[in-house]
Structures are given as structure tokens and as C-alpha cells.
Specification:
There is one protein chain. This protein has 144 residues and is mainly α. The chain has one domain. Helix content is 72%, strand content 0%. It is built from 6 helices and no strands. 15% of the residues are buried. The model has no long low-confidence stretch (mean pLDDT 84).
Amino acid sequence: MQTEFTPFMSLAGGLLIGLAAIVFMLTNGRMAGVSGIVAKSLPPSSDASTFPQDVMFIIGLAVSPLILSNVFDVEIIQSFSANSLLLGSAGFLVGLGAVIGNGCTSGHGVCGISILSVRSITATLILMVIGSAVVFVTRHVVGG
């Protein structure tokens, strides 16, 4: 799987993620951890007081690439393995990691690091090291 580094789009994406986290914090008074937002919007944990904002945030995550594509005439390319076992395992492990780590990359990596949380910095470093190792093994050893 070949990837292409695009500095401008990467910077723009990072700025938009940061802006979304700030807006979410200002309007909801809590951090924009996507795994937590999704968990709180699903039964049995659903919270009626935050449900509308949570659903709108999730919809915004799904719709924003479509808006970007149409407004700026940018082609959104997503590529992933056709190996269902690999995808299922990856999804399970990401979810398990978010539960064990009490947060995900958006909560720890974006919001937690910005407030200099030692726990979030540690979690993000562990995530990056393990993620890099998994990508290396998947691409160069297993060949997925």
C-alpha cells in the first residue's frame, strides 16, 4: 500500500481537528474524545442530556470529508486491506485499547497533550510506538 505525504493537507487537517476539539470543549465543557463520545451515545451508557451534541459531532466527523471534497474539489482517497480478518482484528484491538487506555487518540493525543497531561502523553507515546511496530510488521513481514 503506497501513501503520499501532503504537507498542506496534513497541516489543514490537524488545524481542523484542533479547532473541532476547541469548539467541542467550549460548547460542551468536555474533551472531544471520539471513543468516549460514541460510547456515551450508545446504550446502555447513553446520556440524554448530551445525546444531541454527541450525535451531531459524530455526524460532523462523517460528513466533513464530503464537504471538503465538494467545496475544494479534493479527491478523498481511502485505502485499506481487503483482509476481513485483519480489519476485524484491528477494529477489536483499537476498541480494546481505547477501553484499557480510558480514551483514544483524539482524547489523549489531541486534548490530553494540549493540557500537558502526563497520562495522555504516556498513552500517546505507547500508541505511536505500538502503531509504528504494527504497521512495520503488517507491511514488511506479513505483507498485508
